[in-house]
Amino acid sequence: MKIELETITPNTKSPFRLLHLPRLNHLFYWHFHPEYELVYIEGASATRHVGDSISNFAGSDLVFIGSNIPHLNFDYGVKTDYIKEVLHIKPKFKEQVLEEIPELGPIDTLFEKSRHGIVFTGETKKRIGERLKKLYELSSFDFFMESIQILKELALSDDYFLLHEHPFVNRYRKKEQDRLRNIHGFVDKNYQRKIEVAEVAEICNLGKEAFCRYFKKTTGNTFTNFLNQYRISQAKRLLLMGKNVGETCYDCGFESLSYFNRTFKRISGQNPSDFKKQYLVNLKKKG
């Protein structure tokens, strides 16, 4: 896993750049970039990790991510046949266009909200997803106009929720990026077994107590809470793939089923069995 600045160099002066069907499911890519990002994925159930928020999506997802917010590629670990469309938008589009043209005020407000990370749901997700899948077919002019229209519909939609209560601030300096990259990479490779805090501290060349203070100050979260959040995100994925609660518990590094159930409920608001039942009920309704 890498927490790193991604350099995006569009070969045109257009404020928009489309990545049609990018495939990164084999790579755990934790990154950020100055460009705003609208990402749509269909035919997949995976982890949605944006900023400090770790959650899951099932079936499809549509998310608008603000400038320089670290995020994980949405197709990481996906084994199914999926569709993914990513629209990058240069920050100058907001600074030189949206902020200067009053008629584009609603879209400018949308970009401000993107500092929280925005997940779109319901009919908005369905309609915008279909439009994003067709962008690659358009001429340059039509692509530009359709991108504006998509942003307009998102700006006027009420079908969304925010991933962070407050705007996310990228706190990671170069030294912190290197350390956090190593920490996240270690967790990704070892979350299925018991992880001692001292092990992770050693990776950072810190003592146990110093590491705990560092992690809390840097991320705003304790390492134990972060590890549990990550494990529960993986647990949800396994439950939706058909594994039972017991298998999921131990496959995600929990040593006690009762502790797994308590942690799952604290983080997700429901116990594992109810989570799985609710998903199956919703799936049946959609069917």
TrEMBL record:
GO terms for molecular function: DNA-binding transcription factor activity; sequence-specific DNA binding. Keywords: DNA-binding, Transcription, Transcription regulation. Residues 181-278 form the HTH araC/xylS-type domain. It comes from the Bacteria. Pfam families: HTH_18. InterPro entries: Homeodomain-like_sf (IPR009057), HTH_AraC (IPR018060), HTH_AraC-typ_CS (IPR018062). This is Transcriptional regulator, AraC family.
